[in-house]
Design brief:
Two copies of one chain form a homodimer.
Chain A: H1 4-11, H2 27-39, E1 44-51, H3 58-61, H4 64-75, H5 81-89, H6 101-108, E2 116-120, E3 123-131, H7 132-135, H8 139-155, H9 160-179, E4 189-191, H10 200-214, E5 223-226, H11 229-235, H12 246-254, H13 258-275, E6 282-283, H14 290-295, E7 306-309, H15 314-327, E8 336-339, H16 345-355, E9 360-365, H17 367-370, E10 387-394, E11 397-398, H18 413-422
Parallel strand pairs in A: 4-5, 4-9, 6-7, 7-8, 8-9
Antiparallel strand pairs in A: 1-3, 1-10, 2-3, 10-11
Helix pairs in contact in A: 4-8, 5-6, 9-10, 12-13
Family (chains A, B): Belongs to the NAPRTase family.
Domain Nicotinate phosphoribosyltransferase N-terminal (chains A, B): 23-146
GO molecular function (chains A, B): glycosyltransferase activity; nicotinate phosphoribosyltransferase activity
Chain lengths: 435, 435
């Protein structure tokens, strides 16, 4: 029996929209948005899409009109009543009313602001400029739209069974990865793969496969949830995440003196400290180098719940965090270490083996969970690539990121030098950025 | 949007019927049925299910009531008007009205006759006794029902994503097999996998994958069709097949003297000769040994279109056929050699390499196309196994099959000895029977 209504419905779209909900985004963006809404409502920030994989010419693969239609469709979205209710009423990290009424009132009327799209050297220059809390919500939808339009550019050329086998292979691969994690006692792992996913439906599949394969952590399993609010709501699982580099980057850009610059990353966490407790108090120390960050950190930060390691060589950095906690009289076994940089099964197994039992260890699995289509089509046209969307200036001043991997550094060169001096960055080891 | 009607429809079945059409069977069964309907309408034959894989205890895996419901459902079927029209009007091997009006009149009113089901030593003893052309149509549905109920016994224990990944793996495997055949120039290959398929839907998937992957031979591709009439009709492709061992086995059993026994296999083909020409004139020589069959064959048989090799070591047997044609003054390059015994990609590639260009070479790919679930579940519970349904007696006299592989021989031992003497069978090399 053909369901005529479904068929007609599927064919009535001029486009097949990629972003169909304002909460098809990472939970931490909303948390940060609320924080910025309160602390820095007047800061003007410019976000820009940056394709680190220069050989992938996005403007040649993706039709500009199609991209505009997708971006425009995302701009048409408003929070639905159900989504608003879920954000207001749901329990996040064991706490209700994580989102304050004043923020929700603003968010209920929010729509994504204007964008600026140019083409240069076969790449799209996509920028968003405006009040920080308004433009920052473009990051995830913009990335997801570009990533999925690139996937579509490839799969649109494939025939029916070829296509079915493509997804069969991808499913098999993810399932084998999940099975390869099953024997890790005490494993805790979440989906962090929204921004560079192959597609929305595929991320949803991966999350459900994780749920069945590893079990919900609420019932003793290893799967602790997803960063994606829409999937968390629909699949009735935890939405997870804390904060990101954009906070120290913008705070730092706004600092008037070197001394204020040096304190900016701690000022971010001081503001966060006022708003959040428990599992949301997670240090992200690498924006201007983890080593210096920990060395100069105020002692109250040692009381925070844990640390997230998002660049550099993860094992030595986790060891450094353990030494830091011990030096502050804290018990590392009570501390959470979240690994989230370009993980795949082998590294997860290695890190779990090294740190399980010594700290509370947790993994945020991103692109290689939700977009591992490597090797499936000719020229590896579906392999994930390194696309980011970053705050590049704040109130007209350029932002800088150093991170623990010089290949991830960004900002004007003269500013990078100044930051390296202020934050006392020594030798850093370059690591390939895959995703 | 949930299609309520489809959902309700799917749930209203007490059983999910495996056989839903009388033409969900092999084309050659219908051809033989018509031949028997004319030539031997009063012969009483007994068919019996034989599970050569003794370690698979079908009666422990499959509930007897469920099996009876499936068999009873198949008995309720009658040819639909569309099916009848297709059989009457469709072109088979370039010929219309392959099925005569008198046969179709009988078939339009046909239903599968009674069955006898017993349990012994953990196995089902399933037999069908009656007029040959009436009971012989049970073979394929009985096998397909048992095979699919065994599959269901295993997959019924699996969870949702586990199940999806099971089929993802199977799809990937078949697709890779199909891809591994693409570079064989001039390849001709058909689906012969109805009887021991994993399931009806799965066979249908495999056929469509072959069609897309290899291309329809009508349009220059390598895929020549399916033995399954229902799938051929629905997917608008060729239905293929010629004749099987049951004809010489029953003719032989009815022979009164050793001399008549010796001539029985040729009598079968003489009757067939009267009814069919062209691609349907395919010798199946192995019932009582290919070597003796060719040695003693009447010379008119050398004029037939080709030969089907269904047991023994295929390459030497094809070489023997080539020598035989040459000795009769025939040009082997104009002859068709159909390989159909337990094929998989490696053997297909090898045989194609050896015989392409020397003869017109064709492959009937069976169980390892439509039921290759080896290695996918614990204890290999979905691996195909060797289930057959054979004519075991005719007018009360036992049938015998020798074949070119002593492991496939069947019949009472004393009769096997007599047949070996009459047909002058020497040393035979035993080969494992996988499927």
């Amino acid at each position: 029996m053909v369901d005529i209504a479904t068929r007609v419905y599927n064919h009535k779209w001029k486009i097949d929209p990629i972003i169909r909900s304002l909460i098809d985004t990472d939970f931490y963006k909303l948390l940060m948005c609320q924080s910025i809404f309160r602390n820095s409502p007047d800061t003007v920030v410019r976000f820009s899409l940056i394709n680190r994989s220069k050989d992938i010419k996005l403007a040649e693969l993706i039709d500009e009109n199609v991209l505009r239609m997708q971006l425009d469709y995302a701009r048409s979205l408003k929070l639905s009543r159900g989504e608003s209710t879920w954000l207001r009423g749901n329990m996040f990290y064991g706490k209700r009313q994580m989102f304050r009424p004043d923020f929700m009132e603003w968010f209920d009327n929010y729509q994504l602001p204007e964008y600026d799209l140019q083409v240069k050297d076969g790449q799209y220059e996509l920028t968003f400029e405006g009040r920080w809390h308004e433009v920052m919500l473009w990051e995830i939808p913009a990335l997801a739209i570009l990533m999925e339009l690139r996937s579509r550019a490839i799969v649109n050329q494939m025939r029916r069974f070829e296509l079915q086998v493509l997804y069969a292979r991808a499913m098999t691969r993810i399932w084998e990865k999940i099975n390869a994690l099953k024997d890790l006692e005490g494993l805790k792992i979440a989906d962090f793969g929204t921004r560079r996913r192959h597609s929305h439906l595929w991320q949803d599949w991966c999350v459900q496969a994780m749920l069945e394969g590893l079990g919900d952590s609420a019932a003793g399993g290893a799967f602790t949830g997803t960063s994606n609010c829409l999937i968390a709501m629909r699949r009735d699982i935890e939405a997870v995440g804390t904060n990101a580099h954009e906070l120290p980057m913008v705070y730092a850009a706004l600092a008037d003196t070197d001394e204020a610059l040096k304190q900016a990353p701690y000022k971010v966490l001081a503001d966060w400290h006022e708003e959040h407790d428990g599992n949301l108090r997670i240090i992200l120390p690498d924006t201007y180098g983890t080593e210096g960050f920990l060395r100069d950190a105020p002692s109250w930060l040692a009381g925070w719940t844990g640390i997230r390691i998002d660049s550099g060589d993860p094992a030595p950095l986790a060891e450094a965090a353990i030494r830091w906690w011990e030096s502050k009289g804290e018990d590392p076994r009570k501390k959470l270490v979240i690994f989230s940089d370009g993980l795949d099964v082998e590294e997860i197994r290695k890190l779990h083996g090294q740190f399980h039992g010594r700290v509370k260890c947790s993994f945020g699995w991103g692109t290689l969970l939700t977009n591992d289509f490597r090797g499936f089509v000719p020229d590896d046209g579906l392999a994930p690539f390194s696309l980011v969307c970053k705050a590049i200036s704040a109130n007209g001043k350029p932002t800088v990121k150093l991170s623990d991997n010089p290949n991830k550094a960004m900002g004007p060169l003269s500013e990078i030098d100044r930051y390296r001096r202020v934050f006392g960055i020594g030798q850093q080891i370059a690591r390939d950025v895959i995703v």
